Amino acid sequence: MPHLNITGLNGAFSELKRGANYALLAPLDNQLLELTRHLLTNHKDSVFLLSEQVELFFEGEGSELLFTLFEQGVLRPFHLHHNENVSKGLHFSRGVINEIKQYEQLKNSTVIVHVDSEHLVSLNEQQLGEKLKLYVALSQSKNVTLVFLMSGAYVSELRRQLLALNRCFDGLIYITQEASIRTLEYDYWCHKEGVIAGRSVNLQLHDGQLALVEVEQEADDKSQATEQDFDEDEVWLTRSAVPEGTKLPVFYKIIDDNDALFSKGLTKKSATLVFAVTRYTDLKALAKDCFSLRKKCGRRLKLVIQNVDGIIRHQDECLFLTLGVNLILYSYSEPSRLLSQIQSIQGFQFTRPLPKSIDDVLKYSENVLAKGYLSPDKFVQQVAKHSDSAANLGVSGVLVMLQLLPRIDAIHPLHLFHVKREGDIFSFADGTVYLYLHACREHDVESAIKHLFKLQVSDFFMSKNVIADHFYIQQECRRMQRHFADTEVTDFTQQLQENVSYIFDTKSADIANLNTETPEFKKVIRPISEPVKVTLKGELS
């Protein structure tokens, strides 16, 4: 009998019955692939894999398992060709089912059907229900364990539809990931002893193996009720968090700096701590302090970041929120708004899953991206890798495709791109400039391009397409990888070398060995000019 091979996971949460149907939903394909590999570990019975992107299962980390099962004759992959007009009809599903019924090994096997949520969300409840009934009949007649893998931008909407069709499924799991923590949300899950409903488990990957993250007993839970709210009304602020001379309520306490506030916070359970961020603040160190406070003091402690004159980028915001911060404020000049925002979070608890260590989060937030021009193959690798990391941290990213006007040589517009921020990369292939903007929201794309491109975009490009969802960004990367795999594409790396001249060189100049005979050091002596007498026309007589 198949089951999820996850270390420490209770049998009732991991077992899948024969003659049953299950749905696993996730925003990204990578999250589903990871869980599928744990489902197929030590799998002995036949497996039928149906997918529009069947090659996706044989790519990336952990694909060796599927290759092994394929070579042993256990895994049988089928490629589904999706056609919107055909697939809506029941005869499409009947045709797929009738084809796999020709295999004797289908009985007592596992059938995995991978579909894009976009193809199903357009169906109404009746159409979707009629389709699912065909698969329910298959699982019951052949004693098959049928697992649907559903991913894409519309997976949340599809989840609501499937909850209304619970008669067609024996289990429904929604998968999310925040930094290194994977969360399995069991909407319902039938097992031999009963039904699990409305439960969640947190998982973490260790050496390629998912393991259950034990829920730590919070410091608040150990305390008595009277002790929990003892310091609930206390608000501690650093001196620079509000303008000098601001009149504060009596229960607001001023403290010298962030370090002193951190030390004070270690003794609190439910108070509110307001840290200040200036241009001199080490954001990484402050994030570590917030994480330590959250781990030690529990979920009732309220942590607030007040941006005074520093620069908190979108990626930094996501890092703080992942590591335990409740609120980030920007209205430094309006103390009344600060008081209102602090009042609004009183009584709240931090509910996001916390990683075991801060290093598990920082590996997603480190700026290891290249910048500037990359050849198409390197561009695809970089975007796919860091789009996945950004999605797990909640950081936005956009892929912009600019189609070049006819009769314009690509090198000319490429020279006009001047990238100064790590993570912003671009490439050119097949008449299109591909531009990936890391930690950029969709509504900021126009402003970002104006900073990157010197002239009017419309003077060089006939169209612009923006992809802002990480699921579709990764799909486009896979399409590019397949499309350009056997195609010779021009690499402009050498021609664009001078485009990196704006990068600051940290090495100090070697003044002692400068050649003073070069033109820029030569002293030019000009002859003294002779005065010329000028007579105005009115002075002539």
Helix count equals: 19
Would you tell me the overall average pLDDT? 85
Coarse morphology? globular
Strand order in the largest sheet = 3-2-4-5-1-6-7-8-9
Report the uncertain regions. Answer: 217-228
Outline the biggest β-sheet: 9 strands, mixed
Distance between the termini: 119 Å
How much helix, percentage-wise, in residues? 25-40%
Structural class, from secondary structure content?
Answer: alpha/beta
* Rg result: 30 Å
**Tally of extended strands?**
19
**Strand fraction:** 15-25%
What features would you describe in this structure?
The structure is a single chain. The chain has 541 residues and is of the alpha/beta class. It has 19 helices and 19 strands. The strands form three sheets. Strands 3-2-4-5-1-6-7-8-9 form a nine-stranded mixed β-sheet, with helices on both faces. The chain has a five-stranded parallel β-sheet with strand order 11-10-12-13-14, with helices on both faces. Strand 7 and strand 8 form a beta hairpin. Helix 5 packs parallel to helix 7 and helix 16 runs antiparallel to helix 19. The radius of gyration is 30 Å and the shape is globular. It comes from Pseudoalteromonas shioyasakiensis. Pfam families: CBP_BcsE.
